[in-house]
Write a structure and sequence with these properties.
With about 220 residues, this protein is an alpha/beta fold. The chain contains 8 helices and 12 strands. It starts with a strand and ends in a 10-residue tail after the last strand. About 40% of the residues are buried.
Length: about 220
């Protein structure tokens, strides 16, 4: 659709400690959301980092609040029609409470885990005013906007496929930590090596012109 666009939203960064990077060194990572400008109302994919005991000491985040981040993108919180969380870790749903009353789309399996696993912070999910829309698989939430499950990083991870005027844009969240890893899986699929995720064929069949990630400024293009 020619009147749909996708823009990056900067929610700051955090420092992933050395024991989590696999390289032996700490790494600073951006925390990115994406704003889908849609004629039926704006859709925000992810809302940044939440506050919780232990998070600041462990990840040393530099947060940009939802209202501030949206203002930089030329948008107000009261203009957001929907929120989509690619998954429900603290650095993707942490600003949901600032959009209380706005429907939030998440896979049912992800919500169940967020409410029971110590890897999640349930208070960031079931906050006062939360309006949770539980999904079971692929769902079209607006004309030209399709949610597709892309499990791996978490059991209920999902990506957002957007039909824009210059082709299909996929907001892949943390399906991969960075664009290079996505490239590796795409080439591995072509070469018949490695273990690319089962859902990769589904995404590539949508003929993406750009694939965007939550923790990488780089963009994958075919």
């Amino acid at each position: 659709m020619t009147d749909i666009t996708v823009r990056r939203v900067d929610f700051g960064y955090f420092v992933r400690p050395a024991e989590e990077t696999g390289t032996g060194a700490a790494r600073a990572e951006p925390v990115l959301g994406y704003l889908i400008d849609h004629p039926d109302g704006a859709i925000l994919v992810d809302t940044g980092m939440g506050h919780a005991p232990g998070v600041d000491d462990h990840y040393r985040p530099r947060r940009i609040a939802v209202d501030e981040a949206l203002a930089v993108a030329g948008m107000r919180t009261d203009q957001i029609r929907y929120v989509v969380n690619c998954h429900l870790h603290f650095d993707h749903c942490g600003g949901n409470a600032a959009l209380a009353g706005v429907p939030v789309f998440a896979q049912r399996s992800e919500l169940e885990l967020a409410r029971t696993s110590e890897e999640y912070l349930a208070s960031l999910v079931d906050h006062p005013g939360a309006v949770l829309q539980e999904l079971d698989g692929e769902t079209r939430i607006a004309p030209g906007v399709l949610i597709v499950p892309t499990p791996g990083h978490t059991v209920g991870h999902q990506s957002v496929i957007v039909a824009t005027g210059d082709g299909t844009v996929i907001v892949a969240g943390q399906s991969h930590d960075h664009a290079t890893a996505f490239t590796g899986d795409v080439l591995g699929r072509r070469a018949g090596v490695g273990l690319p995720p089962a859902w990769l064929d589904r995404l590539l069949a949508l003929d993406p012109r750009r694939v965007l990630f939550a923790h990488d400024n780089a963009v994958w293009t075919p």
